[in-house]
């Protein structure tokens, strides 16, 4: 991870709302939820940075529970998965996974060719029920961009040589976890926020 520079919450929020308007007409628009997650991260951590992530670092981002937009199969269990693990789960599920989760599958298909816009992360889980059972309690934790990161990995758009911009709440530290795996020391986690 390469630190570009510190940013304010107002700057982060302005970029988010520019790229992800809450009133954008599309099925299962979750941009209001994303905006709330940013506010929770601001309240919890209060410091933001613009960083550039390698493909391996993006694959190691921890995702919270995700029920696939009301689908029949969890994309991410309550204990969490990394972006790489979630992409592997979708590949292994094949057409059956898409059929069980049609809204999520449509989002992933739409986002495969979407511009590589910044994703939003924090260094600790925010105080929300979707994050309550995460085994990993520190590192790079998703706030917004779950479908985008997974779709870009599935379509092989995450290039080893081209970093992805991210806004990170909290003090960013270089990720030490290998792709697709959580660090063993973080499995038990620490106290919940």
Structure, explained:
It is built from six helices and seven strands; from the N terminus they run E-H-H-E-H-E-E-H-H-E-E-H-E. With 193 residues, the protein is an alpha+beta fold. A five-stranded mixed β-sheet has the order 1-2-7-5-6. The chain has a two-stranded antiparallel sheet with strand order 3-4. Helix 4 (83-100) packs across helix 6 (146-154) and helix 5 crosses helix 6. Residues 164-193 are annotated as: Disordered.
User: So what's the overall shape?
Assistant: globular
Sheet of most strands: 5 strands, mixed
Tally the helices: what do you get?
6
Q: What are the low-pLDDT stretches, counting only 5+ consecutive residues below 50?
A: 175-193
Radius of gyration: 15 Å
Residue share in helix: 25-40%
Helix-strand makeup class: alpha+beta
Distance between the termini: 25 Å
Order of helices and strands: EHHEHEEHHEEHE
Task: Report strand order across the widest sheet.
Answer: 1-2-7-5-6
Tell me which oligomeric state these chains represent: single chain
- How much of the residues is beta strand, in percent? 15-25%
The number of E-state strands comes to: 7
Average pLDDT confidence is: 85
Protein name: DUF6309 family protein
Region (Disordered): 164-193
Organism: Streptomonospora nanhaiensis
Pfam families: DUF6309
Topology (elements, then pairings):
Elements: E1 2-7, H1 9-19, H2 31-45, E2 48-53, H3 55-59, E3 62-63, E4 81-82, H4 83-100, H5 102-111, E5 119-122, E6 141-144, H6 146-154, E7 164-169
Parallel strand pairs: 5-7
Antiparallel strand pairs: 1-2, 2-7, 3-4, 5-6
Helix pairs in contact: 1-2, 4-5, 4-6, 5-6
């Amino acid at each position: 991870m390469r630190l570009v520079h510190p940013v304010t919450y107002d700057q982060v929020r302005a970029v988010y709302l520019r790229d992800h308007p809450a009133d954008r007409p599309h099925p299962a628009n979750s941009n209001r939820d994303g905006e709330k997650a940013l506010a929770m991260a601001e309240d919890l951590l209060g410091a933001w940075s613009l960083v550039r992530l390698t493909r391996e670092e993006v694959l190691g981002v921890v995702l919270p529970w995700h029920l696939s937009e009301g689908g029949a199969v969890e994309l991410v269990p309550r204990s969490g998965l990394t972006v790489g693990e979630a992409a592997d789960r979708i590949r292994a599920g094949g057409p059956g996974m898409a059929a069980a989760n049609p809204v999520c599958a449509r989002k992933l298909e739409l986002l495969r060719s979407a511009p590589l816009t910044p994703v939003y992360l924090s260094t600790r889980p925010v105080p929300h029920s979707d994050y309550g059972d995460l085994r990993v309690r520190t590192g790079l934790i998703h706030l917004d961009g779950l479908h985008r990161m997974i779709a870009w990995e599935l379509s092989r758009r995450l290039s080893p040589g081209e970093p992805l911009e991210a806004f990170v709440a909290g003090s960013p530290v270089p990720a030490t976890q290998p792709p697709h795996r959580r660090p063993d020391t973080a499995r038990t986690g620490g106290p919940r926020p």
